Amino acid sequence: MEATILEARSISKYFHDPVTTQVLTDINFKLNKGEFASIIGKSGCGKSTLLYILSTMDTDYEGEVWIDGIGMKNKKDEELASVRNAKIGFVFQFHYLLNELSVLDNVMMPGLKLGHFSEKEIEQRAYEKLKVLGIQNEALKRPTQLSGGQKQRVAIARALINDPVIIMGDEPTGNLDKKNSEIVFNIFQELAEVYNQSLLIVTHDNEFAARTNRIIEMEDGKIIH
Amino acid sequence: MKVKLITKVSRSFLLARWKQTLVAALGVTFSITMFIALLSFMAGLNDMLDGLILNRTPHIRLYNEILPSKIQPIDQSQQFKNHHNFVSSIKPKNIRLEIYNNAAVINALKKDARVSGVAPKIIAQVFYNVGVIDVTGIINGIDVEAENKLFLFSDYVTEGNFMDLKNIPNSIILGKGAAEKMLAQIGDNIQVTTTKGERMQLKVVGFYQSGIQDIDKVQSYASISTTQKLLGESSSYITDIQIKLNDMLLAPALSEEYAQLFDVEAIDIQKANAQFETGSSVRTLISYAVGITLLIVAGFGIYNILNMMIYEKMDSIAILKATGFSGKDVNAIFITIALTIGIFGGILGLVLGYGLSALIDQIPFNTDSLPTVKTYPINYNPQFYMIGAIFSIVTTYLAGYFPSRKASKIDPVIIIRGK
């Protein structure tokens, strides 16, 4: 059995504005290394909220999150930032690339922030990642010169640059057409199978979810399946 | 490594809105330019106005004055020591206005290390005889060379050669106003009468213009020997000793010391011209206030632009935070942006400020009252440039501080969810 890399222990979350409502109730689950899991559920069931808690970006919750064997409770803003930097890769519905920097610089940025390698090595690694995703020829272009599918692949390359223990995605195919969605899915699948990469993807695309290894279904802030 | 990364991101943000950045930087440039130009001009003007008086005023003047005795006989009486004495109609005693043993006094002063120069002088009350009319006036008997060295005498001689005063016997340099009254030309002979009734013919060799009309109407200059002859006094007769010090601020203390030592009256420049210092400091204060106001306004401009930039770049900030940039890093990015605007705008402002000062320095400024001044005066004091540089950095830092703090507190979740 593979090691647990992400664990949620009885997570509950309330929104206080305008009235206190409970959005997550006692969420418990574990994700093992190399697992390709998807979270599905209807709009407003709390799946994105859960993802933000698991990704350490939201700190206002009850319960505990463990990433790679480390508890995230009571960590400072800066410590959480470095956890996100080193251990988590993000792919969002929108690509969020910095338009003023080249594709290569965008991919290199989290690597430069981590600073485990020299700039030359990071550049080398960025090229490798872009190559895996089949967009190495676009490296020196600006993000504005790329198509939507290409941008999303750049975002994935950026998520991979620090060899994270887990990649988290929030509707990563939500903005893409059928063809590009297919490409992105195939990339995720390849990452999981060939590189033993763990992935946790929030989606409402049931077709997408059906092809992943594991489906976590949510309803009204609870895991029902 | 980290510094390089932050610089890179800051640069990309700056270039993304380069027009706004430029406007913000120009705001700083403008305010620093005006700050430098204003202070340089104001200081130049102050120096000029002060010079008007200070150049021609000795730091300490030694003289004798007809005064009632400070200690009256009744004060020395033991019998009435504890009484309140009033004796009415006290008269001053008759003393000579001459400074006794003045050659020795001048020698002693010249040896004093605190003294930078000494010039003897005779002040003689006269009447200029213009036809049947007598106009009151004062003839200053001066040691021409010493007077020129200490009080830039030649600067104020607008026509004629000041050295003629020494070289031509019985010569006079008339005040411009006095000359106009007498319709005197250079080369004319005029007649003066002393208070004792002595008459003398003097040859006009030049005109003197101080810039202060009341003085020019009354005062004229002659050499010491001419004045002594006019007054019928011996060649040792001197009424005033003018002293310039190396450090003007010592004047009040030294004037007391010399009054005691040489048993004469002494007045220092601070006492004689207190109002000038007050005027200068108030003018300086006002120019600083205006300059600093300009900088603060520029600071608000930067604050606004950074605030706007943060709203525009919220997505980028969010993604930076999601991918591992901490609040501190984001803070550093925006502070870097603010300081970049401040430093570049500031440097340009210093250069343009110098340029504007140099330009003002070229503008003609001719006025009768200021014969030596041909263009607007400018003081190129490096201190203004230092203050400008420091202030531009401090204000932009403060202007960047609050927006960056706001940016560093942006929660990535809210933005990403908002899409």
Brief summary:
The complex is a heterodimer of chains A (225) and B (419). Chain A is an alpha/beta fold and 225 residues long.
Descriptive notes:
The complex is a heterodimer of chains A (225) and B (419). With 225 residues, chain A is α/β, with parallel strands linked by helices. In chain A, 36% of the residues lie in helices and 27% in strands. Chain A has one domain: P-loop containing nucleotide triphosphate hydrolases (Rossmann fold), CATH 3.40.50.300. Chain A contains seven helices and ten strands. In chain A, the strands form two sheets. A six-stranded mixed beta sheet of chain A has the order 6-7-8-3-9-10. The longest helix of chain A has 17 residues, at 178-194. The radius of gyration of chain A is 17 Å and the shape is globular. The two termini of chain A are 21 Å apart. The relative contact order of chain A is 0.20. Chain B has 419 residues and is α+β, with helices and mostly antiparallel strands. Chain B folds into two domains: 2-54 and 276-418, no CATH class; 60-80 and 94-272, no CATH class. A six-stranded mixed β-barrel of chain B has the order 2-3-8-5-7-6, surrounded by four helices. Chain B is elongated and about 105 Å long. The mean pLDDT of chain B is 85. Chains A and B meet through helix 2 and helix 3 of A and helix 1, helix 13, helix 14 and helix 16 of B.
Short key terms for the protein model shown above:
heterodimer, A: 225 residues, alpha/beta, Rossmann fold, 6-stranded mixed β-sheet, 4-stranded antiparallel β-sheet, 7 helices, globular, B: 419 residues, alpha+beta, 2 domains, 6-stranded mixed beta barrel, 10 strands, elongated
* Shape call of chain B: elongated
**What is the count of structural domains of chain A?**
1
- Largest interface summary: A-B, 32 and 30 residues
CATH T-level topology of chain A: Rossmann fold
The average pLDDT value of chain B, as a whole number, equals 85
